Amino acid sequence: MTVGHYNEAAALSGVLGYGEPDLPGPTHRHKEATALSRVLEPHSVAIIGASANPDKRGYQIIKALKKAGYNYPILPVNPKGGTILDLPVFSDINALPDAVDIAVIVRPAEEVPDILVQCGKKGIAGAVVLAHGFRERGDKGSAAEQRLRDALGKSGVRIIGPNTSGMLNCTVQADLIGLPELPPRGPVSVLTQSGNMILSVVEDSRSINGPGFDVIAGLGNQTDVGYGELIEELCLRESTRSIAIYNESFLDGRVFLEAAARVGQSCPIVMLRGGRSIEGRKAALSHTGSISGADDIALKVLAQMGVTLVDRSDELLPVAALLATSRLPRRETGIAVLTDGGGHATLAVDALSRSGVPLASLSEDTKVKLRHVLGDEASVENPIDVASAADAYPDVFPECIEILASDPQVGLVLINGLFGAYHIRFDASLLEAENAAAERIVALRDAKGLPLVFHSCYANRRPENHNILRNGGIQVFPSIDWAVAGSKALFDRANWLFKRGSHKETLAPEVPRVVVPIGLSAETTARGILQRLRVDTGEWSAASDAGSVESAVSNFATPCAVKLDSAVVVHKSDVGGVRLSVTREAARAAVDDIAKAMASHVPPLTTFGFIVTPMVNDGVELFVGAINDPVFGPVVLFGSGGVLVEAVKDVTFRAAPLSPLEALDMINETRVAKILDGFRNYPIVDKRSLADFISSVSVAIMRMENISELDINPIIANESGIYPVDVRLVGK
Amino acid sequence: MTVGHYNEAAALSGVLGYGEPDLPGPTHRHKEATALSRVLEPHSVAIIGASANPDKRGYQIIKALKKAGYNYPILPVNPKGGTILDLPVFSDINALPDAVDIAVIVRPAEEVPDILVQCGKKGIAGAVVLAHGFRERGDKGSAAEQRLRDALGKSGVRIIGPNTSGMLNCTVQADLIGLPELPPRGPVSVLTQSGNMILSVVEDSRSINGPGFDVIAGLGNQTDVGYGELIEELCLRESTRSIAIYNESFLDGRVFLEAAARVGQSCPIVMLRGGRSIEGRKAALSHTGSISGADDIALKVLAQMGVTLVDRSDELLPVAALLATSRLPRRETGIAVLTDGGGHATLAVDALSRSGVPLASLSEDTKVKLRHVLGDEASVENPIDVASAADAYPDVFPECIEILASDPQVGLVLINGLFGAYHIRFDASLLEAENAAAERIVALRDAKGLPLVFHSCYANRRPENHNILRNGGIQVFPSIDWAVAGSKALFDRANWLFKRGSHKETLAPEVPRVVVPIGLSAETTARGILQRLRVDTGEWSAASDAGSVESAVSNFATPCAVKLDSAVVVHKSDVGGVRLSVTREAARAAVDDIAKAMASHVPPLTTFGFIVTPMVNDGVELFVGAINDPVFGPVVLFGSGGVLVEAVKDVTFRAAPLSPLEALDMINETRVAKILDGFRNYPIVDKRSLADFISSVSVAIMRMENISELDINPIIANESGIYPVDVRLVGK
């Protein structure tokens, strides 16, 4: 795991502010042609299985390439030879020119491995494999999948697929999918596990007159190329400014997390996840044969790595379009809403509030200037309601934007209402003035750099002035909710870049590695392992019999908890294995009680010991845990603790390791965080000590081999410290 | 309050199933012309303040009426006389013909009261008052508002407004708002507190090629006509099949709740609320001068009365359009998703799962039939994925729908993917076949009655076959999320109608009324009042001194809680006013302890007594409360109890009174409900007894005069019963 290695200075410098003209441009892109970069932007395409029959995919792809205006060699391959759509047909792969960039293989599954080997021999960089009948078919297809893997190893060819609907590159006009028409070239790249979602994003972009596409690829089974490698490659492309992903499953989520954290430094990633519900997961399985990670965990660890998550399919494209074209708000600013109608402003402010995006507090100077422009009817508090000031004079908008650009509290202006449609709503003669206002706004944005997002309820009518804004790289949305989702994404990204920049390395290299025993460990073993890995588990003593329990209790000089220490019993208190407030005098009786209770619960001759801990004063019950997630690897959990932990479900997640700063964010996400600040008679808990503790656990689990699960529950937290009460460790 | 009065038989009968052809049609509409019905559908319009100046509103309204094709008398009034737009001008109101339906008053605020009085004398039924400068201006306008109210009383004229952008009726083509063009006539009526939201819903309807509008009205200040009266009047109109509301505030929320529960029996209401956040409330205040209710309460009590709530402004119109045109699913059915692409199906199923709409379990018979139609590639589990079966043969869709219509588990079919665009995506020659498939689907829907909802990612291209569906009253949405939100609304409405139908009268008339003393009551007073109102507050004794405490404890024959009983101290345990597990022997000491603790906390000579209750075994801590909400009146609260009640925020709300069945719903909405079913070592609690208790509290508070607040917290619930531990009652 390489999180925490980023250049703090770079992230903390002005790159977050809109003062920097080159954001969100590339920071570490290059033009070295790797096999994958040639696949994503092919300068020659061979079609293996080309056909002269218009009903066949081997014909349609050639037709689509020509229709799209692809200007590089198209090389059909078919043993029959001849010509297809006026192109000479090569009789076999061997006959092709050298160093073709990509082969589109339209032959059935069983032929693909041999074809790949031939492609490899001929020096073809990569292939798109459309065939299905592999892993997604379950047992039936897994033998085919294995043959495919073998061929990949032998040939060295990089493949996208199999079971993909293809890919396209708008920059070189290579349509290997066969869309009705090539979408406009632009800054959004798309990765998806569903062919229909390609159609959806293209249509959604068409509807909002979006900024267009660079590369669109269907990942299929990810047998070779997966999400991690693709986002890194897309990020190297100057022409990609945001990556929209429809994801159903990762073959290795940890690889993606690491790639996302690197890529996110220069290129925003927006993700819609499918298969989040149990029912949806079943639906996803039926068509890609992969496994999605547990949804709660996925959402938290993806956001941790800077991925913008959208819940709704209709928001993927709008948010990606905005992130691709807008600069980011400066740190510690808020949003100014500039509106011409109270209802729209109210709804925008409600939606912003739900999203947690702060409204800017306008300076007195700003308010005075706004009043001067807007007159007495307007509201110059945020949201700024121009009321009727703009009805006959659309330049009110650029004038207000210019004023807001000078206010250091304003990080983004959301213009909302009827913008650009006064010539439709009120008076056709306003058309010219509205176009001029739009021109002024684009020029202002270029000069000041302030991010601008527009909502207009007339956006779907596409008035000319909206197109002036869009051509200037400013998005205009017909939905308030899309405008707000996009604005939130910009603020979240700015915050993430800042926090990531100030993120310290958390994995001290000198911490040893420890192998966790298989199955449940005795609590003394678990605490011992944690301590070796620098987690403070407080005061405790192991004891093997009544005598050693008695001396342990007297050593602590306070009443103690005496608990069974066994690798067999999971819930000690459920079986009478716990005695509380035990004094020195009562120690032997406590041991007897526990031993008696045990006799009826464990097989005869099971050995067990005792663990003695000093009693802790009352406090808040918390929970810290860890699991080895099958998709994302080591993940830390934090939340409300105690016996009700599963019912209360106040828990959050992060990929390990994490810094104390990240742990503090984690704490503040939970409901119990409010109680930690002192509530009624509850003690005030030092959140920073708690964050240090969580961070130390996150580092420790990175050093544990074979860990399956760690539960520290409850932890009693009070004004004097953090006290782990029960520790459960399970190895696999 | 009249909830619970509805005809159970009607609601339980077939009206919920799509087998009934007349749903969601009217059940109690009539055509009696009231003043308000004449206002909403005017057959003559006077314009008071008509103008010959095209820049003036008094000219524009006349122009808009003529442009819209209004076919009834337009009667301009202006002392100057002459003609405007070829219409003769009346020199004063007195000169108008008798019994004009509506006057549009475009004169400024100060003239409006006099004009209304003149209108009344002339027998004009109602008026739209556009002027602002009333209550929404704060103190400055409230005198004007009062003069307006006086004039209303004198004149008897019903007014919409003031401070409204007007109203329109598409059925009689009366545009009193002045839209760019009159929207198409259709079944959706709209009420809004924002003029811009009128433009939004009209544009949103235009975008999705919606079913059109009946009446659209801006409520303005609601000085006369408010939401409650308007929805009842709209519900009487045959031409209104759903009511979409943008609401920022109610002047009397209770009146609306009662009206909504009545209207909801025959006409669905969809509501988007503005001013839900603190910031949004401020924004709303700045333009309408009203107060919104607390959001959490509003959402629950509105849903209780059958109002469909939407969170997003872009969902108001789509959901209202669907509710206006679709029948309802039968009881105890689920949704079948019929798709041509895995990704789209996965997203639809995820969204349905989030919404809590169940997927239908298809019968084996259905699956066999589907397999026969779809072949081996398809998935015949729900979601049904036709895979490529439809690519060249669009009739696959009506064939599958016909099969699904015969499955008793299927209550609604959501068709999702590329529907209707195969001629765009694959082959232009499919156009005819797709149109024919759409015709078949409309015919099928008419024959079978099964509700159908379509998503197509090509919907914004408006292919001909989508229009065939829409003209047949079937909605096609470009967003999966809108289709799902609409489907959920249909299921929720069906459930609400059923539950409402089985709702019993809960207000037994023989329960007495009780006046709650001002301020905090002593606990014995509070328990006494509750008992008189038939709430079982368990065993308790009042005691005035050590002797009577001692004898109370010995009467209970178990250890008791002895608590201070005082109207001065709110949190007894915080000041040492509670002694637990007190035996007869310890009773006098306990009283001494409490008395001593009191001496330092209350003013000298404050009298107080004691309350003695038998100790209760451990159990789950719950909370039942009630408040008199300033907007919605008596509201009951239920949730997790104990000291952390405010931090845990596991609470839900209902308007009182409510039936035990409604209380059970309420219980099941909370997180603590899971624990009540038995969790780890927790006792199993009888939810029905708990529901009876909540219902009894809800009835009791309806009988309390001057109640401000009631807190029963904690209530200990365990296997043997429900035990109110602390009772706090506050009068106002």
Describe this structure in words.
Two copies of one chain form a homodimer. Chain A is an alpha/beta fold and 732 residues long. Chain A has 25 helices and 32 strands. A seven-stranded mixed beta sheet of chain A has the order 9-8-11-10-12-13-14, with helices on both faces. In chain A, strands 21, 26, 27, 28, 30, 31 and 32 form a seven-stranded antiparallel beta sheet that branches. Chain A has a five-stranded parallel beta sheet with strand order 2-1-5-6-7, with helices on both faces. In chain A, α4 (112-121) runs parallel beside α5 and α13 runs antiparallel to α14 (396-405). The model of chain A is unreliable at 1-30 and 288-292 (pLDDT under 50). The interface between A and B is large, with 79 and 79 residues.
Overall structural class of chain A, as computed from helix and strand content, comes to alpha/beta
The fraction of residues in strands of chain A falls at 15-25%
For the secondary structure, the number of strands of chain A is: 32
Q: How many DSSP H or I helices of chain A?
A: 25
* Fraction of helical residues of chain A: 25-40%
